[in-house]
Amino acid sequence: MGSLPRIVEDCMGVLQIFSDGSIKRCSLTDINVNIPVIDDGSVAFKDIIFDTKHKLSLRLYKPKSANLNSKLPVVFYFHGGGFCVGSHVWPNFHNCCIRLSSGLQSLVVAPDYRLAPEHKLPAAIDDAVSAVEWLQKEALGESTNDAWIGGTADLDRVFVLGDSSGGNMAHHLAVRLGMGSVKAAPVRVRGYVLLAPFFGGVERTRSEEGPCEALLSLEILDRS
């Protein structure tokens, strides 16, 4: 009789890898992180599947006070989590998107993406490209023809914002799309905003020197 799978990798209980290759990833509820949803009712939101092959969804946010006669800029928001944890529906990321939509009077697109170690890089970056391609298909009438996109989005004013690992994705998205984002036409990305972007390489940078973080150590991130 074989032995039961044992934990061979434990990232503070949030992400556990077992000897048989199986993985357990905890939700915010599981790890007792009590982050309330802060919603003042100024923004409407809904979830849409943008990649049926990988069963990936995004959350679309629109300010309720938007002028029906004017188009809204589009802001993509890619969440952080070291490429290993997190979801666009987590309260901290959800709250951020509500503030972005309300404060900037913008249509916010917050996609999910595949996580490591099940899906090693560049899977997450491929998914970021897929999310932009979804918007492009919407613009060309080749997708679901979502009313919020067709009636509200100013596709000539698109911005990409990423936090931590999401900032890394924003950088690579800029590289993939190229100068002027011509590959995504008629979607035109006007700028990229990298919030505390996470980068790593073969050679350590100065920012990687010193004691490792307790949650996402360099050893764990190297395997992303």
What keywords describe this structure?
single chain; 224 residues; alpha/beta; Rossmann fold; six-stranded mixed sheet; 5 helices; 24% helix; 26% strand
Number of domains: 1
Poorly predicted tracts of residues? none
Q: Structural class, please? A: alpha/beta
Kindly report the CATH topology: Rossmann fold
Please name the fourth-level CATH homologous superfamily.
Answer: Alpha/Beta hydrolase fold, catalytic domain
Largest sheet: 6 strands, mixed
Compute the number of helices. 5
Instruction: Output the CATH class name.
Output: Alpha Beta
User: For the CA atoms, what is the radius of gyration?
Assistant: 19 Å
Strand content: 25-35%
Shape: globular
GO molecular function: hydrolase activity
InterPro entries: AB_hydrolase_3, AB_hydrolase_fold, Carboxylest/Gibb_receptor
Family: Belongs to the 'GDXG' lipolytic enzyme family.
Pfam families: Abhydrolase_3
Short description:
With 224 residues, the protein is α/β, with parallel strands linked by helices. Helix content is 24%, strand content 26%. The protein has helices at 91-104, 123-139, 147-152, 165-177, 218-221; strands spanning 7-11, 15-18, 23-25, 43-51, 56-63, 72-78, 107-111, 153-163, 189-195.
Please render the helix and strand layout as text.
Elements: E1 7-11, E2 15-18, E3 23-25, E4 43-51, E5 56-63, E6 72-78, H1 91-104, E7 107-111, H2 123-139, H3 147-152, E8 153-163, H4 165-177, E9 189-195, H5 218-221
Parallel strand pairs: 6-7, 6-8, 8-9
Antiparallel strand pairs: 1-2, 2-3, 4-5, 5-7
Describe the protein:
The protein has helices at residues 91-104, 123-139, 147-152, 165-177, 218-221, and strands at 7-11, 15-18, 23-25, 43-51, 56-63, 72-78, 107-111, 153-163, 189-195. By secondary structure, it is α/β, with parallel strands linked by helices. The chain has a single domain (35-202), classed as 3-Layer(aba) Sandwich (Rossmann fold), CATH 3.40.50. The strands form two sheets. A six-stranded mixed β-sheet has the order 4-5-7-6-8-9. Strands 1-2-3 form a three-stranded antiparallel β-sheet, with no helix packed on it. β1 (7-11) and β2 (15-18) form a beta hairpin. The radius of gyration is 19 Å and the shape is globular. The model has no long low-confidence stretch (mean pLDDT 87).
